[in-house]
Amino acid sequence: MYFVYILKSLKNGRYYIGYTSNLEKRIQEHNHGNTKGNRYFAPFELVYKEIYSDATTARKREFHIKRQKDRKYIENLINGAVVQLGERSVRNAEVGGSIPPGSI
Fold first, then answer.
1. Looking at the whole model, is its pTM more than 0.85?
2. Cβ-based neighbours of 28, under 8 Å, separated by 6 or more
3. 15 CB contacts (<8 Å, ≥6 apart)?
4. Which residues are CB-contacts of 73 (< 8 A; sequence separation ≥ 6)?
5. pLDDT tens per residue across all 104 residues of the chain
6. Torsions phi, psi of 52, nearest 5?
7. What domains can be seen in the chain, in order of their start residue?
8. Among positive and negative, which fits the CA dihedral 97, 55, 62, 37?
């Protein structure tokens, strides 16, 4: 299983988009400063994720989201206003984030 995820910096509100096969480990790496590009923006919270069965599809989806280069697009995606292309879309209520349960 592969995840496309969006993290939000609690320090400056910026979004980070990535993909991984181990979401919990990857979020820990981001929050412990083990990622070179954004270690100064930690801590992060998971605000969105999509689940895929293969890495190729997840990578393509990550690239598609990054290619939008539009904060409004990302916020609409997080809030459910954008139709997802993935097999399944789940927001962070499932992993204990800030979106209240039942709002999905």
1. no
2. none
3. 6, 7, 8, 9, 47, 71, 74
4. 65, 82
5. 999 999 999 999 999 999 999 999 999 999 998 888 888 899 999 999 999 999 999 999 999 999 998 899 999 999 887 555 554 444 443 433 333 333 33
6. -130, 155
7. 2-95 (3.40.1440)
8. positive
- Identify the CA nearest to 9 among candidates 48, 43, 32, 46: 43
User: Which tokens belong to 9?
Assistant: 């910096």
Contacts with 69 (C-beta within 8 Å, 6 or more apart), sequence order:
none
Scanning the structure block, which residue is given the tokens 């984030």? 97
Extract the tokens encoding 74. Answer: 């990302």
